[in-house]
Amino acid sequence: MQFLGLEQAVNIIVDKDTRYRRDAYFFLREVLDFTIKRRRKNRKLNVTTHVSAVELVEGFRDRALQEFGPMAITVLDYWGIQSSSDIGEMVFHLIEIGILGKTENDTRASFAHLLDFKQVFVSPFEPAISSSNALVI
Fold first, then answer.
1. Within-domain flag for 133
2. Are the C-beta atoms of 80 and 90 separated by less than 8 Å?
3. DSSP 69
4. Is 100:6 a contact under the CB 8 Å cutoff?
5. Which pick of 55, 56, 75, 94 has the fewest CB atoms within 10 Å?
6. How far is CA 38 from the centre of its chain?
7. Helix ranges restricted to H, 1-137
């Protein structure tokens, strides 16, 4: 069995499924590392290398906001990521090609509806409207 590096694996994946851009997979790998490091930093008991869908999506949210700020929604949309289900699809692409592992409890459905992208990536950056700034005609 031949072991693939991340770059080779991503090339194979995007050749088969063009929904997500290459950079999205590299960012997802960065998010996984970020999530594991954060867990270790918080000294959670029974630290394992397995990351749940909820943990990974939380890490994805935090890292995207940290890295891209108000541009996060634009970058993610450019990469083809519009929901937490898209994150799950990418994870399973990496599982199927042998880059990531999974437990028997890990499913694509585990990623569904974990984030409201508009609430997380758009709303915090919208200007506040106050009654004193209202236009009077």
1. no
2. no
3. G
4. no
5. 55
6. 15
7. 6-16, 22-41, 53-68, 72-79, 84-96, 117
The predicted-structure confidence for 32-66, as pLDDT tens digits, reads as follows 999 998 888 776 555 567 899 999 999 999 999 99
Distance CA 61, CA 94 (A): 19
Q: Is residue 14 part of a domain?
A: yes
Residues 69-80: tens digit of each pLDDT: 999 999 999 999
How far apart are the C-alpha atoms of 45 and 131, rounded to whole Å? 49
Does residue 131 belong to any structural domain of this protein? no
| Global pTM value | 0.86
- What's the residue count for the chain? 137
CA–CA separation, 77 vs 71, rounded Å? 10
Q: Domain for residue 128, yes or no?
A: no
How many structural domains compose the chain? 1
* Cα 4 off chain centre by: 22
Q: Which structural domain, as residue segments, surrounds residue 99?
A: 6-122
State pLDDT tens for residues 71-120: 999 999 999 999 999 999 999 999 999 999 999 999 999 999 999 999 99
